[in-house]
Amino acid sequence: MNYRHIYHAGNFADVFKHAILCLVIEHLKRKDAPFAVIDTHAGAGLYDIAGPEAQKTGEFARGYGQIAAADPPAALAPYRAAVARVNPGPALRFYPGSPLLALALMRPKDRLVACELHPEEA
């Protein structure tokens, strides 16, 4: 299968899985013990949602674009903060994939293992 994350970055499925990932990491941090996140389909990690690939499908606008324009529940605050960190200004230009979201929330003692099959993405 030839799946390129950039065409689907920030779509409704990303919002669902990334929100859950952030909630799980926040839960794991309640204990002092270190933990590991293993991402078996890491992708590039950061996506330019203004680029032609992302614009071709428009999936971001129907996914995270709606979250950004809404008043979401407080539980989504860590997720939204991680997305905001990769955007230097008020405009949304970049969307972090799972590896960057995880790293944004993990502590120095925690570990991330990111795997990606496509050489262009890795």
Give an account of the 3D structure.
- It is a single chain.
- This protein has a two-stranded parallel sheet with strand order 1-4. A two-stranded antiparallel ribbon has the order 2-3.
- The chain is globular and about 45 Å long.
- Helix 1 (12-28) runs parallel beside helix 6 (98-105) and helix 5 (77-85) crosses helix 6 (98-105).
- The chain is α+β, with helices and mostly antiparallel strands and 122 residues long.
- The protein has helices at 12-28, 52-57, 59-62, 64-69, 77-85, 98-105; strands spanning 36-39, 46-48, 94-96, 111-114.
- It starts with 11 loop residues before the first helix and ends in an 8-residue tail after the last strand.
- It contains 6 helices and 4 strands, in the order αββααααβαβ.
- The mean pLDDT is 91.
Low-confidence stretches: none
What percentage of the residues does DSSP assign to strands (E)? 5-15%
Structural class: alpha+beta
State the helical fraction.
Answer: 40-55%
Mean pLDDT: 91
Radius of gyration: 14 Å
Sheet with most strands: 2 strands, parallel
- The H-and-E topology, N to C, reads as HEEHHHHEHE
Gap between N and C termini: 16 Å
Quick one: overall form? globular
Q: Provide the spatial order of strands within the biggest beta sheet.
A: 1-4
How many strand elements? 4
How many helices does DSSP assign? 6
Defining traits:
122 residues, alpha+beta, two-stranded parallel sheet, 6 helices, 41% helix, 11% strand, globular
Q: What is the topological layout?
A:
Blueprint: H1 12-28, E1 36-39, E2 46-48, H2 52-57, H3 59-62, H4 64-69, H5 77-85, E3 94-96, H6 98-105, E4 111-114
Parallel strand pairs: 1-4
Antiparallel strand pairs: 2-3
